[in-house]
Amino acid sequence: MASSTTISNTENLMKYMKLDQRGAVLAEYIWIDGSNGVRTKTKTLPKPVKDYKELPEWNFDGSSTGQAASDNSDVYIRPCAIFPDPFRGGDNILVLTETWDPDGSPNKFNYRHECERLMEANAKHEPWFGLEQEYTILDADGWPYGWPKGGYPAPQGPYYCGVGTGKVFCRDIVEAHYKACLYAGLKISGINAEVMPSQWEFQIGPCEGIELGDHLWVARYLLYRVAEEFGARITIEPKPIKGDWNGTGLHTNVSTAEMRRDKGMKAIEDACKKLGERHEEHILVYGEGNAERMTGEHETASIDKFNYAVADRGASIRIPRQCAQEGKGYFEDRRPASNACPYRITGIIMETIFGGMEGLDLSKAEK
After folding, report:
1. Which residue in 278, 302, 313, 365 has a CA-CA distance of 20 to 30 Å to 70?
2. Would you give the distance in Å from CA 222 to the centre of its chain?
3. What is the DSSP-derived secondary structure letter of residue 106?
4. Cα–Cα distance between 192 and 160 in angstroms, integer?
5. Contact predicate 316/306, CB 8 Å
6. Residues paired with residue 250 on neighbouring β-strands, in sequence order
7. Which residues contact 18 (CB under 8 A, 6 or more apart)?
8. Residue 340: C-alpha distances to residues 111, 227, 324 (Å)
9. What is the pTM assigned to this prediction?
10. pLDDT top residue among 193 and 11
């Protein structure tokens, strides 16, 4: 598929993938690094496990991931969720972890810990989230796959949810990723081609509480791994191509028990008003480079203004028309950039709507 200098001998590899592991299990430990990326390494376990609590804590060199100084480089990874491994199959697993410092405190890039505390404190509100992860597939040279080398395709129009050669690119990567997510037990609810050619989207959710962030990060990991096997690159930069091309976002759908009840529109509008009061704080944690995307054009609001409206994809917050007609449901926060951390997004939304906790402030751009 993708032109690449990467050599992949899949047929040869499969001979070894079929070998008996003699009861051992391979656990792929996944963590989020200091530059909002994912890192992994593999541990051999003596037998299958059914719960993440059975797994040991591990560590890595934080000075090589931007998470610690070289003279005190050990960072610990604590398992917090497990998933079936779609690459190795069998009893092998993916292990999502949190990063912790040697003194027992969360690493400065461990946003999950704070998010989980907020979700547990507000569990009575039964918060549901659904995130729409947009991304762009690049070739080995860093140019959108399928685009003319050093040039541009025809203007936007035929590519969104498109079908057919010249309208969509790399569907094989997208389909492979979809199946990998389903095998891993992720709550992936759909996929579609996006407005810019070689731009795609997958949706995670509805998930309740911390589960959304867990599933989205593992889905990102799977996307990077699948693309690796096809010799392509994935970018979640919010404006990968400058000019008259759509950016990429991470639209965030939010619903609480109060919003889903009859006459829940009042709870939706109350939440929107609170979000507007902390617009600048939200923008601080809604992704790097978002100003290039949120220009007021290409289905975005201006980054320095806030508004909410029914069925308006140019608003900061969109209330779906069906929800307005039924008087209950959910809202869509269209401000987050594609590279934003889902723990930070969902955490600050909970903090803004229901109030913070002592010692927590999720509006800080850096800890």
Report:
1. 365
2. 11
3. B
4. 8
5. yes
6. 133
7. none
8. 12, 20, 28
9. 0.95
10. 193
Query: What DSSP element (H or E) covers 49?
Result: none
- Both structure tokens of 269: 């509008």
Structure token pair of residue 96: 């999502």
> Which residue reads 């600048």 in tokens?
280
SS3 for the chain is: CCCCCCCCCHHHHHHHHCCCCCCCEEEEEEEECCCCCEEEEEEEECCCCCCHHHCCCEEEEHHHCCCCCHHHCEEEEEEEEEEECCCCCCCCEEEEEEEECCCCCECCCCHHHHHHHHHHHCHHHCCEEEEEEEEEEECCCCCECCCCCCCCCCCCCCCCCCCCECCECCHHHHHHHHHHHHHCCCCEEEEEECCCCCEEEEEEEEEECCHHHHHHHHHHHHHHHHHHHCCCEEECCCCCCCCCCCCCEEEEEEECHHHHCCCCHHHHHHHHHHHHHCHHHHHHCCCCCHHHHCECCCCCCECCCCCEEECCCCCCEEECHHHHHHCCCCEEECCCECCCCHHHHHHHHHHHHHCCCCCCCCCCCCC
Rounded to 5°, angle at Cα 83 from 131 and 204: 10
Task: Check: CB of residue 211 under 8 Å from CB of residue 199.
Answer: no
Yes or no: say if 42 and 28 are a contact pair by the CB < 8 Å rule: yes
187-236 per-position pLDDT tens digit: 999 999 999 999 999 999 999 999 999 999 999 999 999 999 999 999 99
Strand 317-319 to 331-333 pairing: antiparallel
Q: What angle do CA 303, 204, 8 make, to 5 degrees?
A: 105
CA distance 289 to 239: 8
Distance CA 27, CA 75 (A): 18
Instruction: Please give the Cα distance from 136 to 238 (Å, whole number).
Output: 9
Q: Half-sphere exposure of residue 112, counting CA atoms within 13 Å on the CB side?
A: 24
